[in-house]
Amino acid sequence: MEFFKIRRTIPFMRHALVFNVISLVTFLAAVFFLSLAYFCLRLFPHDGEQPPGTGIVYRVCGVVILACLVLIALVKYLGLIPGLHPALWLEAVAVEAFGVAWGVKGGTLKPKSVP
Predict the structure, then answer these.
(1) For the chain, how long is the longest CA-to-CA vector?
(2) For residue range 61-105, what is the model confidence (pLDDT) as tens digits?
(3) What is the reported pTM?
(4) Which residue, 12, 44, 53, 88, has most beta carbons within 10 Å?
(5) Which residues does 50 contact at the CB level (< 8 Å), separation at least 6?
(6) Distances (CA, A) of 4 to 1, 15, 18, 24, 31
């Protein structure tokens, strides 16, 4: 039983479903990373009173995430160093940058004094 029926008589339709699923996952991953960059660039710096210097950390992390997205697209388009899997490493760097921003944000949520 097939969940997705594909007309295998048409040559170009053999891999059409796989291509569509991969395109959808790629698009959703890009939306996910763009939302992480939005958190770092817009939401974290403008969220109440924060210690000095934290806004710079948030913006640097957001720029790193955006730079990783641009580099992923560029490396995929140009086909550079496919054996090293640069998309994997750049995604890991982007997630780590968000982790740093989130950790800094978590540190600013601590109460100033304990009653």
Answers:
(1) 74
(2) 999 999 999 999 999 889 888 888 999 999 999 999 999 999 988
(3) 0.76
(4) 44
(5) 108
(6) 9, 12, 10, 16, 26
